[in-house]
Design brief:
The complex is a heterodimer of chains A (524) and B (519).
Chain A: H1 6-14, H2 20-33, E1 40-43, H3 45-60, E2 72-76, H4 103-110, E3 114-119, H5 146-154, H6 173-180, E4 186-191, H7 197-202, E5 206-209, E6 229-234, H8 237-247, E7 278-282, H9 292-307, E8 311-315, H10 323-338, H11 357-368, H12 371-384, H13 386-412, E9 417-421, H14 430-433, H15 438-445, E10 454-462, E11 468-475, H16 480-494
Parallel strand pairs in A: 2-3, 2-4, 7-8, 7-9
Antiparallel strand pairs in A: 1-3, 4-6, 5-6, 5-10, 9-11, 10-11
Chain B: H1 6-9, H2 37-40, H3 48-55, E1 64-74, E2 122-133, E3 139-154, E4 158-162, E5 167-171, E6 178-188, H4 191-208, E7 220-229, E8 239-244, H5 247-266, E9 275-279, E10 284-287, E11 310-311, E12 326-327, H6 328-333, H7 339-350, H8 354-362, H9 366-376, H10 381-398, H11 410-421, H12 427-438, H13 445-451, H14 460-473, H15 475-483, H16 489-499, H17 506-516
Parallel strand pairs in B: 8-9, 11-12
Antiparallel strand pairs in B: 1-6, 1-7, 2-3, 3-6, 4-5, 7-8, 9-10
Helix pairs in contact in B: 3-5, 4-5, 7-8, 9-10, 9-11, 11-12, 14-16, 14-17, 16-17
Chain lengths: 524, 519
């Protein structure tokens, strides 16, 4: 049951094959077994069981709230949850219990979803590995998969298995690990420059960044207001669409949400034919750092579309090479401003120093933030100084417009969807990852995701090492349904294998009951 | 407009605070209710800066002062600018604070102050105000100050520092309240001009209902930028005097600062571009010694707020939902009467002098008092004006009372004026009645008049008898009148009035005496 998709388990709940409480308990038990993954910062066991009980009553009375009723979900620990500690994996917010729910959390709860817990991340979502949070790094469940381990055995250089675990990617690594390890059916991440899509690619999941303005950010503790979007991590595209259907819509508490009516429920048609589609391949995304495996899968995916009758054309996004530096300036500038609220006065950490208010602020922030956060605050303040504002911030804003126009131009030239890699390569071992600093890593890991508004990463195949590789579909803003429809067709073609964690959870044989055999259609 | 010389523009101007004559067009301090004690207690230190100003007259150079103002007015709205929290003065600390106001993580946009840095809501305006001039300050000279811009921003929380216990206490009730920042160009040249301009702005804001603009309650706060220079030379280095919280202090602080700068420069010193505060007890400004030096606020555009578009009738998109768009023309049509129009109407309707209309508006509640008296009395408007501005206001000033604290109600004054108008009492008796009314003994003017027997003597025969007796008792005076000094009759009138305990109409007495003296 745990290995099923959200849609499947929802059907099972409706048919009474399993009750919400049974499902909740199974997930809770798996959360305990996989505690070493460090996917969760807080497990909200009591809340989840109580919600399950209420859901069960509804099912008994035939008053189910819909597809999400009774479905265990997890939420990244940078979304405010009423009565449940929300830390952003930072000392600054350790012990902070919000008095309100983020709009997206409230919407999920209103649909009957069960909140299993709050997932791990890089501190304040600043990172691409889920390694830089105060609660320690998240381990990629694929490190323990049969697929990966078998490949490791063949490799004579393989070192101590326990220290050789892989990163999940980030910053929503906890959410990705939680879904990937079957401890929940969907999870909320946040995606600013790739924080949902990147770990999704590394953990073999669907990672979706909806159009900015479609989903409320109220209650999401901001990284970059102008780019943050609540992200969705699921095991398949249909599940992402169900969750999006529950989340999308205007919110008076987030003035950037749009008022255009959206189709609900958010159903995806099954595309029978892609011959009317035009797929764009941005030539600038073929960078030297791209691993040959990813590159080969990318081109095979393009071939697949072409062979099924779609028009596949090369497009140019000429300002792509500026996106990383542009993102850096804009991100840090907004971070400098967003982090101003953490002064130790109203909530969160406060140091013991009481010499003066200023000294208290300084020490609180010194103690509360890690080097990465402090570094970004300092950079951002530098870019916003009067003498630097024009040369950095304003220039970066202009470049952002040029980059955004690149996408608009591509779509206006007749392209429906862009197909790109999500990451340069598959997940790397933690020990490898931390050889570079956070900034360098973010620049590399988010190279394909930072400049993008609305996109989804779809798991495509396993690498030679037995690790997932994802490809990214980028859509036109507010054409989320169209994008997911194409992604769903693609997903069906590639038949990405289910992670095999039976060694990890030998007594959870249920995981395997729905196992699809690894038919890596793109790999010959 | 060239800045007038300091010593011409402000010579002899004194704080009109304790003035009891009705001719003053300004008023400093806004004693309303119980919060104004601080202001009233300070009248004795007002004049110091001007004494020092005299000294410079000996110098060779003339100085001109340049004053610009930044005024923050709390917008009088039901809720804060971006949150639903109530706006209310003197609520218990932190009782009007939403999650948003406390900038809880995840509330948008919060955690910093939001202002209209680059696109203010209005630019390039002007404000006309009237400065009193002339020997008796009885002439109103209109002046114009340019308004650089008006912008919206958020108020911040309030912090109270307890140095003894090394504590800072925070009250967030004010955090997020909408502020209207008005930037006045440096077109003013002394404290009085600045004070008068601010008073005019205050009246406008109050008339519009934009702000209660009560300085004592922090609803109107003023920062002044001040510099001095020799006319014809470039402007001097300016200082900023911050957080002036009464109109009187504003004027005092500016004049003090002008004089300080002049003294500094004449003694070979230099003016630092710095922020200063006004110490109201010492009556001087002091450097605030900002640790950080020049502030760089590191502004950036607010990504959480979509642009607010203001339309007028011509730019309004067709078919726009009136609930969703702002049409300036529509708002303009519904604007209430502005103070300048009110004054004009007063002048036209009641034939009063323009400066009287200024006084009526400048005193909080005085116009309403005046209008209520007018409504209830048969007396001439000019009479009412005179009584309200001279007698009534004079008593208030003498005792540092606000109109709302007056012991005399508009009805009582109206009744008193009716008695005067019907010649039931003489005007000196009226003054006596007024004094009695002021004692708050709960008596009506009619009661006082009959108790004290203040009615004019209407009995012609009795009066003639009295006149006769007085003439007999003072033959020498009668001779004086008859021979060469007709004005000596006034002495006789005075003696008769005294004999009637001032209850007789002097005009009537004079008539009788003239008849008897066969003049």
């Amino acid at each position: 049951m745990l290995g099923r998709s959200l849609r499947e388990v929802s059907a099972a709940l409706k048919q009474g094959q399993i009750t919400p409480t049974e499902l909740c308990q199974k997930c809770l038990s798996l959360i305990k077994k996989t505690k070493f993954l460090n996917a969760y910062i807080t497990v909200s066991e009591e809340v989840a069981l109580k919600q399950a009980e209420e859901s069960e009553k509804r099912y008994k009375n035939g008053q189910s709230l819909g597809d999400l009723d009774g479905i265990p979900i997890a939420v990244k620990d940078n979304f405010s949850t009423s009565g449940i500690e929300t830390t952003c994996a930072s000392n600054m917010l350790k012990g902070y219990i919000p008095p309100y729910n983020a709009t997206v959390v409230q919407k999920l709860l209103d649909q009957g979803a069960l909140l299993m817990g709050k997932t791990n991340l890089d501190e304040f979502a600043m990172g691409s590995g889920s390694t830089d949070g105060v609660f320690g790094p998240v381990k990629n469940p694929w490190s323990y998969s049969k697929q990966y381990r078998e490949k490791r055995k063949q490799n004579p250089h393989s070192e101590n298995e326990d220290s050789d675990w892989l990163i999940t990617g980030g910053s929503s690594g906890g959410s990705a690990a939680a879904v990937s390890a079957f401890t929940c059916y969907a999870a909320l991440g946040s995606d600013t420059g790739g924080s949902t899509r990147n770990p999704a690619a590394h953990c073999g999941l669907v990672g979706f960044k909806p159009s900015y303005g479609l989903v409320s950010r109220h209650g999401l503790i901001p990284l970059v207001n102008s780019m943050d979007v609540p992200g969705i991590l699921t095991r398949c595209v249909d599940d992402a669409a169900i969750v999006l259907g529950a989340l999308a819509g205007p919110d008076p508490r987030d003035s950037t949400t749009v008022h255009e009516p959206i189709n609900k429920p958010f159903m995806l048609p099954s595309l029978a034919d892609v011959s009317k589609l035009c797929i764009g391949i941005p030539k600038e995304y073929l960078v030297p750092e791209l691993s040959s495996e990813v590159q080969s899968l990318w081109s095979k995916a393009a071939d697949l579309f072409e062979s099924e009758g779609a028009k596949v054309i090369e497009v140019s996004l000429p300002h792509t090479s500026y996106s990383i530096v542009c993102y850096h300036v804009l991100c840090t500038s907004e971070v400098a401003s967003n982090m101003a609220r953490f002064d130790g006065l109203q909530y969160g950490h406060r140091c013991d120093i009481d010499v003066s208010t200023e000294a208290m602020y300084a020490a609180t922030r010194r103690e509360g933030f890690n080097d990465v956060v402090r570094g970004r605050i300092l950079s951002g303040n530098f870019f916003l100084l009067k003498e630097n504002y024009e040369n950095y911030f304003v220039k970066a804003q202009k470049v952002r417009r040029l980059i955004a126009n690149d996408f608009v131009n591509a779509f206006n030239s007749g392209v429906d969807v862009l197909l790109t890699p999500t990451t340069l390569s598959e997940a790397v071992p933690y020990l490898e990852f931390i050889k570079e600093d956070n900034r360098t890593r973010s620049a590399q890991d988010d190279i394909f995701t930072q400049a993008v508004n609305m996109a989804v990463s779809i798991p495509v195949a396993l690498s030679n090492q037995g690790l997932p590789i994802g490809l990214q579909f980028i859509g036109r803003a507010f054409c989320d349904q169209q994008l997911l429809t194409v992604a769903k067709w693609f997903e069906k073609q590639v038949q990405f294998p289910v992670i095999q964690l039976q060694e990890l959870m030998d007594d959870c044989s249920a995981v395997l009951e729905n196992e699809k055999l690894a038919s890596v259609s793109l790999k010959q | 407009m060239a800045a007038p010389m300091l010593r011409w523009g402000c010579r002899g101007r004194r704080w009109a605070f304790a003035r009891v004559d009705g001719g003053s067009c300004h008023r400093r301090g806004a004693p309303t209710g119980s919060t104004s004690n601080q202001i009233r207690g300070e009248s004795s230190v007002a004049q110091q800066p001007l004494h020092t100003a005299q000294k410079t007259r000996k110098g060779e150079h003339k100085w001109a002062a340049v004053v610009g103002l930044e005024i923050h007015a709390q917008i009088s709205s039901n809720s804060k600018l971006f949150s639903g929290s109530q706006v209310r003065f003197s609520a218990p600390p932190n009782s009007l604070v939403s999650f948003f106001d406390a900038s809880l993580p995840g509330t948008l946009p919060a955690g910093y102050q939001i202002t209209q840095q680059r696109l203010p809501i209005a630019v390039n305006g002007s404000l006309i105000y009237g400065v009193c001039a002339g020997k008796k300050q009885s002439q109103v000279i209109p002046k114009t100050v340019r308004i650089k811009q008006i912008q919206l921003e958020q108020d911040s929380g309030k912090s109270l520092h307890d140095n003894l216990r090394s504590q800072t206490l925070i009250d967030l009730n004010r955090a997020g309240v909408g502020l209207l920042e008005v930037v006045l160009e440096p077109d003013m040249s002394c404290g009085e001009e600045a004070a008068t301009a601010v008073r005019e702005l205050q009246l406008i804001l109050q008339a519009l209902g934009t702000s209660q603009a009560n300085m004592a309650e922090g609803q109107l706060r003023v920062d002044a930028n001040i510099s001095v220079h020799h006319p014809g030379e470039p402007l001097g280095v300016r200082t900023e005097v911050k957080n002036l919280n009464s109109i009187r202090f504003l004027a005092k602080a500016i004049d003090y600062e002008i004089q300080r700068q002049i003294n500094e420069l004449e003694n070979g010193g230099e003016i630092l571009n710095e922020t200063r505060s006004f110490h109201h007890k010492l009556g001087c400004t002091m450097s605030m010694r900002d640790k950080e030096g020049k502030q760089d606020y590191r502004f950036m555009p607010e990504p959480n707020l979509p642009p607010l578009v203001l339309y007028d009738a011509t730019s309004l998109p067709a078919g726009a939902d009136p609930q969703q768009v702002i049409n300036i023309d529509q708002i303009r049509e519904t604007l209430p009467e502005l103070p300048s129009v009110t004054r004009e109407k007063l002048v036209q309707q009641y034939g009063m002098l323009l400066e009287h209309s200024f006084t009526l508006l400048n005193e909080v509640g005085l116009l309403e008092f005046f209008q209520n008296v007018i409504k209830e009395t048969r007396a001439e408007p000019k009479k009412v004006t005179s009584w309200v501005l001279n007698t009534f206001l004079g008593y208030l000033k003498q005792q540092n009372l606000a109109v709302s604290e007056s012991p005399v109600t508009p009805s009582a004054l109206a009744e008193l004026l009716d008695l005067l108008d019907s010649r039931t009492i003489s005007s000196s008796a009226a003054k006596q009645v007024f004094e009695e009314l002021w004692k708050r003994e709960g008596k009506t003017p009619g009661q006082i008049v009959s108790e004290k027997q203040l009615e004019l003597m209407q009995d012609q025969g009795a009066l003639e008898q009295l006149c006769h007796s007085v003439m007999e008792a003072h033959p020498q005076v009668v001779m004086d009148v008859k021979n060469r000094n007709p004005r000596a009759i006034n002495k006789l009138i005075g003696l008769v009035r005294k004999a009637t305990q001032s209850r007789a109409d002097p005009v009537m007495i004079k008539e009788i005496l003239e008849k008897k003296l066969s003049l």
